[in-house]
Structures are given as structure tokens and as C-alpha cells.
Amino acid sequence: MRDPSITEIMVNGPAQIYVERAGKIIEVDVRFRDEHHVMEVIERILKPLGRRVDRAWPMADARLPDGSRVNVIIPPCVLNGPTITIRKFPARRLTVEDLIRFGTMTPEMAEFLRACVIARLNIVVSGGTGSGKTTLLNVLSAFIPEEERIITIEDAAELQLQQRHVVRLEAAPALPDGTGRVTIRDLVINALRMRPDRIIVGECRGPEALDMLQAMNTGHEGSMTTIHANSPRDALSRLETMVLMAGMELPLRVVRTQIASAIDLIVQQERLRDGSRKITRITEIQGMEGDTVVLQDLFVFQAKAIGEEQGKVEGVHRPTGIRPHFMSRLEAVGIRLSPQIFGVGTFPVGRTR
Questions:
Q1: Contact at 8 Å (CB) between 138 and 161?
Q2: For residue 255, how far is the Cα from the chain centroid?
């Protein structure tokens, strides 16, 4: 836990421990004595946090005092032995300048995303596990003006907003008797009564997606969330599925129309083979054509080759040469972006349907 280069710790029973360092997962030469030893450590982690695991409920999520997120699962639900996964909280909050230096995005992409946040566009950050979605959401949130009231909603609090007027909501698991559970959906519904200027949901993963879309469509512009998906098109499919989980039995076209009218931008984040994390697409949702949501890539990452130096992925971020349809919304708040940011005049990379 003291090693700042380690971002994740994975204990797969007493005899197998892995860590993630610089985006790569490696096994370390450390062992527990036996399963009882692992259970003692689990109890020491969970007891001060008011959580427990046992045969009746063998899983637990918790947040450590330093903000790190921990997940525990024990037999019989895991066959390897008691398993611990810790995602460490970074000691220093990353900035947009850090992401530019890491090659996650270019200065032009950062300027564009800053303009979109200030102009109160609704943004979804999409990506796989460990791709850096929460880090990117933190960076985007830093562009929100200081005077706005922000409500954040998370399963386990990870966001590190620096603005003063922030209310942080966190879901609560059920008590041992089964009562007291508070879901993300409960918190989204409650947040609408708290006079928010912005609602930021750490991750949409269930029926709360419907309430989030309705909030975006009813005056709560500038909201942001993340979603597990491998492409912007996959993100739309995931959103459709989650909305249908709300049990409203809406026609698919109605769901797609809600999505197309609520969300303005999808930012796709990926962890590449060399462990680096990059924005691979910034995609505008342009509306509906028939029963299809129309997507348009504005920026893309084009991988060129795997370099000889430690298998490094080489590539370049490029604008597609197309200006977004919502430029008038940026200009309405006094933001005028240079056409060069979008590569206007170059050959467009293409349209995604």
C-alpha cells in the first residue's frame, strides 16, 4: 500500500498476489500463511468500516480511510480462497496537464472538452475496467465553474472534486437483517430534489440510467457519468439495456430517442496493450435517423505500430475534420474554438452509424 507506483492489489487466496504497476499486472513474491491469515486481514480491513463478510453474505465493498476502494469475496462463492481487490486512491489528484503529458489526450482535445463542460453538454465517459474512466471524469469535473452546485453519486466514493460547493452521496449496502439498502437509483432520484446545477454519477450500471437520462432531458444539463463499454456504439447498447432494466417497458425507439436527446458526447477511454491509457474516440451524438442513433467521431486515436521499446503502442490522435453540430451552444457561452482544432479542411476519418 505504501508503494506509490502500485495502483491495484489483487489477492487470489493465500498463495497468489498480483499488483498493477504502470498499467501492467505482475505477480509479486509475497504470500499469506494460509486462508485463516487472509481472513484475519479481511476482518482488520472491514471491521473499522462497519462492514463484515460471512457465510450469510460472503461479499463486501468498502472504502478505506485514504479513499482506496476494496472488494472482498470469500468461499463458497470463490474457489481460490478469500479474495481481496484494492484499487488504491492516488496520493495526488491528476490534472489535465498530467493526461496531456501521459499522451492520454492532446492539448486540442483538452481545450475542446473544457469548452464542452463549460457549455453544459451532457457527457458519458465509456471504457473497460481499469481504463481510467474515473480519472478522466475527475479531470473533466475540474472544468466545472466554481459557483455551481454539484451533486456526486457513487457506489464507493472515488471522485475528487476540488470545487467548494459539492455534495457527495454514496450508496449504502443492506444491513445484516436485509434493511437499509440505498441504491444509486435512490440517490439519483433524491439528488433531483437537492437543487443541483450538475449531477455526476460515478458509474451507471443499472436502472438508474433511466432517471439520469430523464434528468438530462429536463433541465439538468452538464451532467456526466461513466459506463463500462468497449466503443461508443456499445455504450449506447449498454444504456438501452440499463434503461429497460427499470421495468418501464418502453418501446426501443422511445429509449433511443431519449438517449439521443439527452447525451451530447461520448468519450471513449482504453487501456492499450502496453498499459498506457488513452482517449481513443470523442464522438458526438447527432440525433436519430429512422430507428438508429447517429454517431459522428470528432477525434480518434490511430495506432500505428508496436514499438520495440517494451512493446510500446505508437500512434497519434487526429481530428476527423468535422465540426460538431452543437458549436452554437459553445458560442452561446462565449467560447469560440479555432477550426484547426477539428482539422477542418483535412480529409474526414469517417462517420459511424
A1: yes
A2: 22
Residue of 273, 251, 187, 194 whose CA lies nearest to 225: 187
Alpha helix positions (H), 62-207:
96-102, 107-118, 133-141, 184-191
Per-residue pLDDT at 180 = 85
Are β-strands 166-170 and 265-271 bridged in parallel, bridged antiparallel, or unpaired?
A: unpaired
Query: What is the C-alpha separation between 350 and 334, in angstroms, rounded?
Result: 29
For residue 352, the model assigns a pLDDT of: 47
Question: Residue 116: helix, strand or coil by DSSP?
Answer: helix
Q: Which residue has the cell 475528487?
A: 160
Report how far residue 279's alpha carbon sits from residue 108's, in angstroms, rounded to the nearest whole number.
13
Distance CA 16, CA 13 (A): 6
Q: What is the pLDDT of residue 346?
A: 53
Whether residue 312 contacts residue 274, with contact meaning beta carbons closer than 8 Å, is answered with yes
Question: In this structure, what DSSP letter does residue 256 have?
Answer: H
Cell triple for 40: 484475519
Q: Which residue has the cell 429512422?
A: 290
Q: Cβ contacts of residue 163 below 8 Å, gap of 6+?
A: 141, 144, 146, 148, 150
Report residue 116 as a C-alpha cell: 464542452
- Separation CA 75–CA 21 (nearest Å): 28
pLDDT of residue 108: 96
> What pLDDT, on the 0 to 100 scale, is given for residue 218?
82
Give φ, ψ of 38 to 5 degrees.
Answer: -65, -40
Low-confidence ranges of the chain (pLDDT < 50): 347, 350-353
- Residue 64's pLDDT is 86
How would you class 133 by CB atoms within 10 Å of its CB: exposed for 0-12, middle for 13-18, buried for 19 or more?
Answer: buried
Q: Which of 234, 276, 20, 239 is nearest to 131 (CA)?
A: 276
What structural domains does the chain harbor?
6-87 (3.30.450.90), 96-342 (3.40.50.300)
- Which amino acid is located at 37 in the chain? H
Q: In the prediction, which pLDDT does 72 show? A: 96
Within 10 angstroms of residue 298's Cβ, the number of other Cβ atoms is 21
Angle at CA of residue 114, ends 138 and 272, nearest 5°: 55
- Tell me, yes or no, if the pTM score tops 0.90: no
